Amino acid sequence: MSQPDPASRPAERLRVRRVGIDTYRENVAFMHRDCAIYRAEGFQALSKVEVTTDGRRVLAVLNVVDDEQLVGTGELGLSEQAFAQLGVRPGGQVRVEHAEPPGSMEAVRRKMRGERLGLEDFQAITRDINDSRYSKTEMAAFLVSCAQTGLDRDEILFLTRAMLESGERLQWDEPLVADKHCIGGIPGNRTSMLIVPIVAAHGMLIPKTSSRAITSPAGTADTMELLAKVELAPDTLHRLVRRQRGCLAWGGTARLAPVDDILISVERPLGIDSRGQMVASILSKKLAAGSTHLLVDIPVGPTAKVRQMRQALALRKLFEFVGDELGIHLEVVITDGRQPVGRGIGPVLEARDVMQVLGNEPDAPEDLRQKALHLAGRIIEFDPNVRGGRGFAIARDILESGRALAKMNAIIDAQGRQEQAFGPGPLQFEVSASEAGVVTGVDNYHLARIARLAGAPMGRGAGVDLLKKLGDPVAKDDILYRVHAEVKAELAFARSLCARRSGYTIGRADQVPGPYVEF
Amino acid sequence: MSQPDPASRPAERLRVRRVGIDTYRENVAFMHRDCAIYRAEGFQALSKVEVTTDGRRVLAVLNVVDDEQLVGTGELGLSEQAFAQLGVRPGGQVRVEHAEPPGSMEAVRRKMRGERLGLEDFQAITRDINDSRYSKTEMAAFLVSCAQTGLDRDEILFLTRAMLESGERLQWDEPLVADKHCIGGIPGNRTSMLIVPIVAAHGMLIPKTSSRAITSPAGTADTMELLAKVELAPDTLHRLVRRQRGCLAWGGTARLAPVDDILISVERPLGIDSRGQMVASILSKKLAAGSTHLLVDIPVGPTAKVRQMRQALALRKLFEFVGDELGIHLEVVITDGRQPVGRGIGPVLEARDVMQVLGNEPDAPEDLRQKALHLAGRIIEFDPNVRGGRGFAIARDILESGRALAKMNAIIDAQGRQEQAFGPGPLQFEVSASEAGVVTGVDNYHLARIARLAGAPMGRGAGVDLLKKLGDPVAKDDILYRVHAEVKAELAFARSLCARRSGYTIGRADQVPGPYVEF
User: Fold this and answer.
1) What value does the CA radius of gyration of chain A take, rounded to a whole number of Å?
2) Which of A22, A34, A54, A273 is catalytic?
3) What is the pTM of this model?
4) Which of A65, A246, A332, A509 is disulfide-compatible with A316, CB 3.0–4.6 A?
């Protein structure tokens, strides 16, 4: 075919305007309906455009604007994320073109047809997601197609590897770098803040990086931040960990498996619950963090993420398979997920529980203490010099002697002690038992939602304080739990939900469900 | 459980601000990060909020805003669609709450797990979609889960029924209301604008409502609009059709199966190609339009939507099953989809082809003429008084005698003649053959894209004029086709795509693919 005129690109450009809208992990561009250069609605049906300047380009979803105050006819608006990614200054000149869907969408469509994807497919998909080439609907299509056909274990391995390659990888230059991760779903489960000081006091390297809560009432990073600075530069973190043997920091300063965070932002609102995504998410983050030895905690219970023992055992096998293939020493522990661990749900309340345990106070929540000692003991047994089965006693000794508290204080000082004290939210209401009996059910998910509506974790003092646990006898009008908030509207949201359902079930002693667990 | 204080809703409200952004079928709300009443980031992770005022409510995706000029700390911004749907005036008072995902998402999650859904499930889903309760990612989850597991034919029936119930239904009070629909994918295929005048001239009722193009270069409504007004009120349309026996109008003024349009806006960009959705989409629209007898045209060819005869036959069976269950008399015709029909692609160029055929001009594209006569003949055979096989001759007679042209002019005058004349876009370039030989391939999809980039259909005169068709001999440098545009940037987009690939294949005469079709 003869070649058309090579001068095929329009000379005119639009001036970039930064639009102060945070579109949360999706690039959005704004064009006036009467744009001087392009016919705005011509882009709209397929809705993705490519914005280019000086060799840099971003993909964005296009919204048409009718208000010249927002975006003028000679301008292109970019949401905050798109603006940052393109790296152009306000008023800079850009071109707009129809965007091809990302090349890897072809692999997503194959998965939609039920086919099996290979390593290169997952690598292409994660690369495109990482470059913000995927709109939220395209990410939803990927996640749903994986959840539905299911990923077989080789595909989960490929996905994990691809997600790991999407970011940085930390190196610690020691043969044993310990880590721990809980699959989630159990509020108040702040065992990491006990395990790290105990294991570090033993002398094992445990550089624990955590995320902030996304949909739960508190993440380890949120709770630790009440005590110390958690956002530390990677080299600061390295030096600190070498001296203290451990840390409790936020994982976001090093870009560890960033695709994981992007996918989670679409996955959670859709309520997609996919084993493959879970395993890939956890292992890619841990491998990226440089861990060599990982303890995975799978709580099982009627309102936990995993409800039946056989699911937990299948998940264990999956973690073991992928972990072995990717060269991480992995042990899975199945734990009691019948109810929240400890008494507090929300950063301040959980930090209180943790400090009570570290201080060996008589009021310290016993279930939190026991669980932390068992898990810390299992991690201590990663040490080749520790005899199998001896870990619990070593951990208990470290805790009771005060060495764990001393180590925690050393870590806090090294990271940067938070001088301000935080208390539970002053706005409160209580939920009481309407009849006498025994507590036979405590709904993890419902109580987490109440704490979340009350404002946790952004409201640090917000959350729920549980006064009764499973198996406790209650009289009529005994207080079951207290809800704390910092903002009136949030107290009201929580109150509405409690009014529908408290999350507690009262019954007879013989109705208390037994635990499934190994210890 | 004891009841918490019933005064559980916050008293303060936000003032609504209308934000001039067209977010294209998704409600969006804008809240300032430092909102006076609510903590904006507290909503963000699950991203859907419920905005209420005076008993009315809308669901919206929330975006956080950092610019007080856009939305102030005491305000809630609403995108144009959300603002219209809530029906509140600017400055009106609203409350914001966390939104539950729509109840029917539970059914979507069942479909994601591979289960079969029932009629009530599809009804709940379409009801929620129609009420704008679904975000685009939730709609993507629904579409992908249906496409992947597939819908069995009962499910397709349920979905069709549910989509039909989502809007209005037209009544014509005659025993025979004829209609025709092509599944698409073949540019230039404006047979409707020939079939309607021919069939109406025969005396059969054929009130053809069509959509505007969504991703194709021209829809029937876009092309007809060059000749007459197409946006007519339902009662005007009724009167017109009773007198003329036919019309060629836009279907959007009556709300026919609105869920179909909403789903298409998510489906097309994702490239989801699902038989179930296709059948449900077409039949729900036709039944809503009040048709009793429908001719479905399925073009088959190497670059058509349906590439193999067995797929076409399976699709035919599906249409027949659902059509019979829903009480519409349906005939499926499999036609030649090897290349675009006629010469023009784009509204002005296609209208030219149509008027040439109606005027019995010697230059009229013969393939368009033949196809229109065959399909019109099949529709005429719906008439109980017409002997099977006689339809073609009747249709040809109506066309050659000039009665079809007279009827078209009568319909145009009745709808409201468009006095302005439109010509092909003045900006042009040509694509020529780089070697001699015979045209062995014309890529429907690629040429449609070129026409689309050139600006069709919003650029009425934009598009492609095909000078050579399949089987035509070409010499080196013969012009294959001419691209027209109205906007410089759009000519440039089209030129870029043509430079990569012209869409034509030149080879030997024995390489021309044969047609699969019934006639």
Assistant:
1) 25
2) A273
3) 0.87
4) A332
